[in-house]
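Thread title: Can someone regenerate the structure for this chain?

I was given the following input by a collaborator and told the matching structure tokens would be attached. They weren't. Posting the sequence so someone can regenerate them.
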Amino acid sequence: MSRTLPRLAGHAVAAVLAVLWLAGCSSLPFFSKKDDAQAADAAADAPIERAIYELEIDAPGDLRKLLQSYLDLARFQNAPATESITSAELDRLIAAAPAQARSLLETEGYFNPTVRVARAANGNGDTRVRVAVNPGPRASISKWSFDVTGDLQKAVEAGNEDAVVELASLRRRWPLKADEPFRQSAWSDAKNLTLARLRAEGYPAATWATTTARVDAETNSVTLTAVADSGPLFRFGPVTIEGLQRYDERSVRRLSTFRRGDAYSELRLLDYQDRLLKVGLFEGAVIEIDPDPAKAAAAPVTIRVKELPLQAATVGVGYSANVGPRLTLEHTHRKLFGKRVTAKNKFELGPSLRSWQGEVISHPLNNLYRNVASGSIEHLESADEVRRSWSARAGRAQDSQHIERLYFAELTHATVTTDAGVANSGAASANYHWTWRELDSLLLPTKGLSLSLQGAAGYAVGREIRDDGITDGRGAFTRAFGRLTWYKPLPGNWYATLRTEAGQVFARDHVGVPDTLLFRAGGDDSVRGYAYRTLGPMVDGTVTSGRVLWTGSVEIARPIFEDRPQFWWAAFVDAGNAAKNWNELDPALGYGVGLRWRSPVGPLRLDLAYGQEVRKARVHLSVGITF
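Best answer:
Regenerated them for you:
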């Protein structure tokens, strides 16, 4: 017995040591990897508790939209399931919501808001979070100041008239005035706009020295202080032109809107750029000034142009309510016979209109002039008549920043065939056309005025063949025409367009003035609701051309969708007519509604108009603007 017990005790101790050794080994990596992986897989497969909640925001309309857009509670509510938050994270967002909402409200000028966040269970057992906001009074601007340092301030102190006027203009156009509501975005916009104006008007290196918005939460008022460092006044220096291969450098330099040493103006550069594009030689043009303040006294100017090809031909298919479908063929040669002239030919082929127009125009000359020679041949069927006409003219054109001038001598002839007979007439005349524009955009205007005036004096010879005999008439005549268009933005994102035009031919009754110099009304850009050239004096039941004209139009329009501002709807009223004299002029009325697409190449208009005189509705389709 004494020998057996020690032996059993030894085996027991060995067993215990073995168990302890195995337990220690199990903690080593090569023993525990499989078990840990199984545990990790099990943890990954376990569902994560996602917070499902409803959010209600009780706040005034615009502020409610602000909070719905930027409050974290709103953003995470609509997040995908893989990005949604847990219950613990929801607790954190609810706790942070009042402070976050107050910060957002301060950007809109509310510095004493009351924000309450309540949490409850809805009928489904899910969480319902309600954010109630009382914004309190909105802060307003109590006073503001705008000052400058740098060369502009030195020039003002020295009594320089241009500098005094410029500083006064910047202050007058400061966007934020006293007693207006304060908004952080408006404050940022005001600073950006004012600095951009300063940089555009002679000081491209201008920066803000200080800008401060001091808020008095007790009185709900804000004091604005802005001081700009103008930096040096820049003056135009040497000009370098890049990108020319086919065309003469003189064609670029002669269009310049400035001379070396002139004070810098961004408007002059933009005007110069527009001229380069309008001349018809370049696809693109960029003009830049070196903004290095060290070169301000004679800042280098770089002009980069992208030339249009030497020749271009286009084929187009189109339709208009005036003349119906048509095929258009155009060819342009921008250096005819190697000379500094551009030649254009355009053919239009359709069931109602067949025409050719040709033009030869010089590249820019001194003082922005260009020599012009042109001609046309036309066969037009409209309003139960056929008109065949041709013209030839020679003259000069001049385009400046706001004014276009064209004066020319012209020979014209027209033959008009109607049920009443045939009228042949020709004329030689001297003409002057003048157009002035002050618009926010030439392509898509919404604000400003345009005025077009035409005058002519000449001698006409005509013959009219009718069933009751032949009438000859010749003699002197004069012609006057004007068209005024006013674009006006209105409150509520509305836009108004008002147009009126009037014309008269002065001649004795027997003088046969060519039909191309007389007047008719009706059509897309005249009185909508009536076919093209169908309004005029009636002779034996046939519409003819008159010696006087008046039309007018009032149109209001606004965007259809807030997120697609290029699509508009419109309502309009047109009136007008042509007649033998003012006593016989009886305006016809047309009115309707339309759709507008403000495309990159100009506005496309689709109108449904009702002509009160004919008691019919008519669809009008047109592209572009007529000034």
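Residues 1-34, 39-47 have pLDDT under 50 and may be disordered.
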